[in-house]
Design a protein that fits this description.
Blueprint (H helix, E strand, L loop, with lengths): L1 H15 L3 H9 L4 H26 L9 H41 L9 H19 L1 H26 L5 H4 L8 H4 L1 H6 L7 H7 L4 H29 L2 H10 L3 H12 L2 H36 L5 H19 L4 H30 L10 H23 L9
Helix pairs in contact: 1-11, 3-11, 3-16, 4-5, 4-14, 4-15, 4-16, 5-6, 5-14, 5-15, 6-14, 12-13, 13-14, 14-15, 16-17
Pfam family, one: Trp_Tyr_perm
Keywords: Amino-acid transport, Cell inner membrane, Cell membrane, Membrane, Transmembrane, Transmembrane helix, Transport
Membrane topology: Multi-pass membrane protein
Length: 403
């Protein structure tokens, strides 16, 4: 029993830690380490709370293996199912687009001799090579992911081992250069705590045991929080803020992060370790999201009696994010920001709405998430604010996170 709980916590942690953490230093360069910590803790509390709201709702689920779209239909009817499914599919497309642009930019460093053609060719190669594993089978994706995940952990440990001793106190205490950056960066950071799509899986795995599900969520989100703090400490502490901002503004991609690492440490070993870790984080995240989107599209088509075949599903899965990456090759941060908007609805606004109805429909529920009605209202308001952030940035009411 305990092993299942711990295994579920690791599943939560593994789903949470991904390519989103790579964007953290890019979007928080002007924010400083102190405000970055505040944002990390705030979003950890908020998204752990929203996950516990799902736990509360699952007490009255018609089936313990019910998906979140099924729960939405239970409380909001078919309209709720449709909106939830659409938000999930578009979210996965958006975050897949971010991974393709990020992976393409990292791979482009190997093809500098191609000049301006390096980036589009790298984006296409990144998508096709990894897409082949998706089309072959889920077991092929599983085998590749297991191998790369182990290497990724080793690379991350190596990066921290080499960078943390180089942290300087004057870099750590750097303050924000613009007001309200902590709000502007929230959608990108929001995606870094996104694991809610697997709650139905672990709820079924734990046989609907509410207590063990709560432990798995708290422990499973605590592991990424520690990893994120160490990662942010390493980057903010090693990079002088002014130098870091200058490099990032000139190259707002993951290559900019690697270039900043080299300039700050003057070590090809450290910058190469950061490149390896970044590449593996992107690939493992890409594979996880891509196979989820692949299966989701398959289920949707089967509901309307269309059989597309694995190659057809592969085309539907990868053409939209590939097109985005080719037209916006530097759109890594932008795509993550829009993904954060959609995930905010799916991972925060939706569970607040379901719990609001559930507490009135089922007043006898044995478990209720902390905070009462006030907690629901605060979570809803914060969710709506985060969803509006990209529009507020575009309108000039909030500063851009880069530039």
């Amino acid at each position: 029993m305990k092993n299942k709980t711990f295994g579920s916590a690791l599943l939560v942690a593994g789903t949470t830690i991904g390519a989103g953490m790579l964007a953290m230093p890019l979007t928080s360069a002007e924010m400083g380490f102190t405000y970055t910590l505040i944002l990390l803790f705030s979003l950890w509390i908020l998204l752990s709370y929203s996950a516990l709201l799902f736990v509360e709702v699952y007490q009255k689920a018609e089936r313990k293996e019910a998906g979140i779209a099924t729960l939405a239909e239970q409380y909001f009817g078919m309209g709720g199912r449709i909106i939830t499914t659409l938000s999930l599919v578009i979210f996965m497309y958006a975050i897949l687009a971010a991974y393709v642009t990020g992976g393409g930019s990292l791979l482009a460093g190997l093809f500098d001799f191609l000049g301006d053609s390096a980036k589009p060719i790298s984006i296409i190669l990144f998508t096709i090579i990894l897409g082949i594993f998706i089309v072959i089978s889920t077991s092929a994706v599983d085998a590749l992911t297991r191998l790369l995940f182990i290497i990724k952990l080793v690379a991350f440990a190596l990066v921290l081992t080499m960078m943390l001793p180089l942290v300087k106190s004057e870099n750590i205490v750097a303050m924000p250069l613009k007001d309200f950056l902590i709000i502007s960066a929230s959608p990108v950071f929001f995606t870094s705590f996104g694991f809610h799509v697997i709650i139905p899986t672990i709820n079924n795995y734990l046989d609907g045991d509410i207590r063990r599900l709560r432990i798995a969520i708290i422990l499973g989100t605590g592991i990424p929080l520690v990893a994120y703090i160490l990662w942010q400490c390493a980057t903010h502490g090693v990079f002088p803020q002014s130098q870091f901002i200058e490099i990032i503004n000139s190259d707002p991609t993951l290559n900019g992060l690697i270039a900043a690492t080299y300039q700050a440490t003057n070590s090809k070993l450290i910058s190469s370790a950061v490149r390896i870790f970044s590449t593996l984080a992107l690939i493992t995240s890409f594979l996880g999201v891509a196979i989820s989107l692949f299966d989701c599209l398959n289920d949707l088509l089967q509901r309307i009696n269309i059989r597309a075949g694995r190659i057809g599903l592969g085309v539907l899965t990868f053409i939209p994010p590939l097109a985005f990456a080719l037209f916006y090759p530097d759109g890594f941060i932008a795509a993550l920001g829009y993904a954060g908007q959609l995930f905010t609805f799916y991972g925060l606004v939706l569970p607040v709405g379901m719990v609001w109805i559930a507490r009135r429909r089922y007043p006898d529920m044995s478990y209720r998430a902390f905070g009462g009605t006030i907690g629901l209202v605060i979570a809803l308001l914060l969710g709506l604010l985060i969803m509006c952030v990209p529009f507020l940035i575009e309108a000039g009411y909030l500063p851009k996170v880069i530039g």
